[in-house]
Amino acid sequence: MDQAVLERFHLLLRESKNIVFFGGAGVSTESGIPDFRSKDGLYRQTYRYPPETIISHDFFCLHPEEFFRFYRDKMLWPQARPNVAHLALARLEEEGRLRGVVTQNIDGLHQAAGSKNVLELHGSVHRNTCQGCGKKYGLDFILQSAGIPRCSCGGIVKPDVVLYGENLDTATLQQSAALIKAADVLIVGGTSLAVYPAAGLVDMYRGRSLALINLTPTPYDWRADLIIQCRIGNAFEAVLNSECSR
Ligand code: NAD
Description:
Largest sheet: 6 strands, parallel
CATH superfamily of the largest domain: TPP-binding domain
Oligomer: single chain
Bound molecules: nicotinamide-adenine-dinucleotide
Helix content: 25-40%
Radius of gyration: 18 Å
Number of helices: 9
Number of domains: 3
């Protein structure tokens, strides 16, 4: 990793009090949760159906048992803990430098790290709703049930996770767009920027510096003022060592 690029990134963190972070699955790989599109990601593994088919609305309705088998096996990581990037972002928020995190992740690790303003574009595995009566359930209910999780009313308990073919929550999308639009510095990290409409949020940014941290190139590299091609933990570890504090 080019040290000069990292130093420019740390200077950005020191100088701004209006940073927004927009991230994806690559933020949590260092917590042991596989992403989708890396070489070890879920999309490179072989299943009876392609993962993007299984985690779709139609598949959920037609084959709920198969859906929950995959979901419990590949999408739930209850032992995962926040890593350096999650902790650094929480620290930046606490110090009044970061306004919020917009995430495509569903794992709840930003909140576990202490971040307060987290907008979850694709929902969360920690929230689940009965499709019959609307009763709410936590993650433990899904982990402790077998097969298709059922409410006491008999309805299927569906994760509040946006499946392929479903719409994003309008309010969350609008709040995310507003936060990014008003940001001075936008840090985009750990996302292939291949999933829409989430990826399109980068187009809302009007600020002075866009830093993009990703192990591999993305379709938005041309828009970035700073491209940091390294593990996201590497880029953020200086925040925890206080090298980015005034
Ligand atoms: P993606 O898998 O398409 O892309 C992840 C990107 O992160 C890749 O470009 C990869 O090179 C990069 N990356 C991986 N590890 C990294 C690291 N340590 N440091 C820096 N970069 C790293 O993921 P996406 O863009 O978020 O989109 C896919 C969808 O996957 C999202 O909708 C999200 O909901 C879902 N998803 C979420 C989780 C989670 O909640 N942890 C896990 C898998 C998938």
